[in-house]
Amino acid sequence: MSFNSLLIANRGEIACRIMLTAQNMGIKCIAVYVDADSNAPFVKIADEAIKLPTNYMDIVAIIEAAKKTGAEAIHPGYGFLSENASFARKVINSKLIWVGPSPNVIKVMGDKLKAKELADKSDVPTLPMASDLKNAKSLGYPLLVKAVAGGGGKGMRIVKNPKALKELVASAKREALSSFDDDRIFIEKYIQKSRHIEIQILGDQHGNVVHLGERECSIQRRHQKIIEESPSSRVDPLLREEMGKAAIKLAKKIKYSSAGTVEFLLDDKTGEFWFLEVNTRLQVEHPITEEITGIDLVYEQIKIARGEELKFSQDDIDWHGHAIEVRLYAEDPENNFLPEVGTLLAYDTSKADDIRWDSGVEKGYKVGTDFDPMLSKVISWAPNRIDAINKLARGLEKAHFGGLKTNRDFLINCLRNESFIKGNTTTDFIDRENPSARKELTKIQLHEAMAAIAVWNALQNRRSDVVTGFMPSNWTNGRIPDQRIKLLILQNEVEVTYKFQRNGLYKVMDSNCKVHGHDQYGIDIDIDSHRFYAQISQADDQLLINMPYGDLEATIMPRFVDPGNEIPEGGLVAPMPGKVIDVKVKKGDKVKTGDTLIIIEAMKMEHSIKATENGKIIKLMVSLNQQVDNGATLLVLEN
């Protein structure tokens, strides 16, 4: 069953990750892509690529691409078709090697209800549940609505009271149907003070199964993980052994082969745990297991698919040090983590290359609404947890990337939060600690950033001045006011005054600035005896400056501003670009505060536009299935 060519039925970061290992094994890698990804890094990394006529869910087109290129095997990555049993079966029936568990295992474990039944039969504890609204009430609130075919946080809703149950179930069903083509849901009791613990397993085709320890994935937003670590600060060796045995028992019951994950919910107070699901694929957070075990999971997946036995037993596996992963998203933490679109003005991780960057983006990459907004996974390893935390937070600051809103500063604030450092990382962490969504700067730090931008911009203007460039900056034979630049920075407009002095220094506001060197990429500057190098990227009037504490975005404002389109009084706007999938009101309707008026979908995620006050709809400016831009006025509400 040996093969030397592999088609990756996926995109972005995971496609790059699989190719890295496969190509190092001497395996030719074939990519598939759509128009939106025609210039993506994974297409360039591949040995060859085939453009799909439709999308990444097109089974027929993907198998045809494999046949056209002579691929002998298919790796599904995660997401898309990775847990589609029908796809796996068609790959095998097409005489191709499937890098993953058997179609039957995928089918059974992909149905969370069947998986729970199997766990019960294997004496693995499960949470009480209900499959309909009527029986759900007996579980007691709060409740958690989950998609039967779900994953990645899609089709999940927390229900805090009976009044919200019906609407949230309907919303979860719509999202599940959109994401998985299956709108079935079930309902469980929601454990508020809990941790998500998952056990990584490996099984071969000869009946051997091992576990590689646990990952804690408790810190989530929208039920989707954003910070993961291994080992868990809550799991001791005895609990690890107990959970590992439960995972192996279930894996052997279903004759699992390939890499997979058994997920558990752990009660933080009692240490009691319950089975949640089996992910029959590679997990997004697999790198932290690789970092602490030294085992390349993609390498093992490929070997297992070739029919080879595992070369190690459970007793051979050891864990070293501590690893943490964060997921960098193009999203706005200050706007309920809604996805952002735009172009990456910079993406330079060279100053933070002591940590691992699993990425599928580069400078100039355009983030749209077609796919999940994850940009990169960033992973640190250190001999102990506190060093891993500090290393990761500092690495995120040192990297120079941006141009659109991301969750980077939020992640840094999470890592440096005192509760996180102490290991108090239960699933309520974000609600409980409410980490700041933005970088908190002192007046001096902000002043230095503005001064560095003003001086660098002045010097760049001088370099491009072919007419009077030979004259000293700001030279005049008379008295004129200082030069000025107006910046939009941290959502505030500020005016910076500056002047070149005869002593060779710049006077910026009240500071003396000395330039030690500069070019189009940045400036080495001394501001009131504080010297640092600021890396700067620019696109039109948009700037990104990397200071000692991290990146800061700024926009050079025009001297004269044309009046733009104003939002009408009472207007409600789209918080993100997307598609209108439901309009619950019409012109003339009277609504109350909190009523859902319009539902927008973007990147397979729903967002409800709710009334901010009691009032009457006097203008409705969108219709069903209409595409809207971020900030577009949807309707006007008059109180």
Strand content: 25-35%
Roughly how many Å is the radius of gyration? 27 Å
What is the strand arrangement across the widest sheet?
A: 14-13-10-11-12-15-22-20
- The structural domain count equals 5
Distance between the termini: 70 Å
The shape is: globular
Instruction: Summarize the main sheet.
Output: 8 strands, antiparallel
Instruction: State the low-pLDDT regions, or none.
Output: none
> The CATH topology of the largest domain is what?
D-amino Acid Aminotransferase, Chain A, domain 1
Average pLDDT over all residues: 91
Look at the structure and give the CATH class of the largest domain. Alpha Beta
Name of the CATH architecture of the largest domain: 2-Layer Sandwich
Task: Find the CATH superfamily of the largest domain.
Answer: ATP-grasp fold, B domain
Tally the helices: what do you get? 16
Percentage of residues assigned to helices: 25-40%
Number of strands: 39
Pairing-aware structural class of the strands and helices? Answer: alpha+beta
Structure description:
The strands form 9 sheets. Strands 14-13-10-11-12-15-22-20 form an 8-stranded antiparallel sheet. It contains 16 helices and 39 strands. Helix 4 (85-93) packs antiparallel against helix 5 (103-110) and helix 12 (385-398) runs antiparallel to helix 13 (408-415). It has 639 residues and is an alpha+beta fold. A hairpin with a 2-residue loop joins strand 35 and strand 36.
